Structures are given as structure tokens and as C-alpha cells.
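Recap from last week: sequence in, structure out.
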Amino acid sequence: DHRERRDHAESAANAAPEQFALPLHRTLAAALSAANGSGLTEEVIEIVDSGLYPAQALVWPQGPRRLELRAAPFERPMIQVASSTPGAAQYAALELTGLALTRLGPGAATLNLPPAQEVALNFVSVLRSDYTLRLRLFEAAGAERAVLRRCGLGPLRLEDAGEISLSDTII
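Predicted C-alpha cells:
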């Protein structure tokens, strides 16, 4: 199950999601869809278990300026991506934390992430060596950068000019 978590105050960071009546979604695709119409500038989608989420058709939301997809503490969900459609979505910041990513079907494929001024991948694993992760940085005021910390990835494709920082990461 997915819980969409909106952390409004530092003191709320450790509170139980039930205290905030946060929405519950059965799939990552449903959580992304709900974020598309939320009207919030920041969206945090937290996956609360280490389950397999098969055949996820990801349509990235256009509304928020910052989007974070993360695993709950001590969890490692596996997301099997059927498709990834960035559409017109673009973010000031896009962060993925604690996710294991794979895909459907044989042969090489690419996971297209939406463009962002800053992309952060933390503890992300791509489970197939023929699955390319495509990052797009868009130019805005300030530095365009991608930061990868403790990731295990297959091929990585950086589409636009910008800074990339790797720390304890295997590509």
C-alpha cells in the first residue's frame, strides 16, 4: 500500500500517517494520479512496505514543483515499471529514495524520468543491466544537477548539460 505523505512541519516527520488522515493508494500509479490534481507545490509519496508492485504505468504529475518518491524506513519496495510517461511534468526537484526498479518484458528499455532542475537518487537500485535510466535536467536559475548516493544502476543517460555527483554508486 502507498501512503501519500505531506510533511508540513518538522515535528510531524516522525508522526504516524494515521494521525494526518493521509490518503491510501493501492498502486504507485494511483498515488501519482492523485498528486496530479492535489494543487500542492510539494508532494511526497511514501511506500510503506517491501512488496512487489507489478506492471506500474507511471504518469508523472504536472502540478507539484517538488516530487519525492520514497520507501518507508527499513523497507525496499520493488517497482516493476510497465511504462513511464513524463508528459509535460517538470520539477524544481525530483527525489527517489530506497526504491528497487525493474521493468516488464525482454530486451533493452529506458526508464524516462521527468525533467527537473535537481534530481536526487538515494539508495536506488535498477535490477536489470539492460534497463537504462534517463535523467533530464532543465535549465533554470542556479545550477542544474543530479546527485546519486549509494545507488546500483544499469546504464545512465544524462540528457542535458549539468553537474552530476556520484557517491558510493555503481553504474
